[in-house]
Amino acid sequence: MLITRECDYAVRIVRALAGGEKLCVNQICEKEDLTPAFVYKILKKLEKKEIVKSFRGSNGGYALKKSLGELTLLDVYLAVEPDFYMIECMNPDKACVHNQSDSSCKVHRELYRIQKQLAKELSVHSIKEIMEMD
User: In terms of Cα–Cα distance, which of 88, 9, 23, 86 is closest to 54?
Assistant: First the structure.
């Protein structure tokens, strides 16, 4: 599971919207020190996964569609990186050139175990719980 800059920015966008108010892209960028072009791209992905909702028009902007109590880090990461694999050969749709038989290599199996554990850990706490931690 590669946690990309896009994943990091997606969490920062959710954090900017955590107050419940509707914000325009410039307000999100200002709160989280992000660039508008990147934020627009990520917001489209978050909207597609129904994490945020958009409002059109002169009073437009974005707000969270799901509550912080419903969202985990894994939810946000998967919204922007659906192929969320530690390394490329972990993707079941792509064959690893080093796996010549039906069984995966030992390194692949260990990375798969670690990836499953990481996914589990990223789902332990809601974003709300994380933001309330001391």
Answer: 23
pLDDT in tens, 86-114: 666 666 666 666 655 656 677 777 888 88
Short-list 86, 88, 108, CA closest to 99: 108
Which positions ≥6 away from 69 have C-beta within 8 Å?
Answer: 126, 127, 128, 129
Q: Which distant-in-sequence residues (6+ apart) come within 8 Å of 109 by Cβ?
A: none
Measured between alpha carbons, how far apart are the two ends of the chain, in Å?
Answer: 27
**Region at 6 (left for phi over 0; alpha for psi -120 to 50; beta for the rest):** alpha
- What is the rounded distance in angstroms from the CA atom of residue 118 to the CA atom of residue 122? 6
Amino acid at site 45: K
* Average pLDDT for 43-60: 94
Burial class of residue 128 (count of CB atoms within 10 Å of its CB; 0-12, 13-18, 19+): middle
Q: Left (φ > 0), alpha (ψ -120 to 50) or beta: where does 91 sit?
A: beta
Chain-centroid distance of CA 24 in Å reads 20
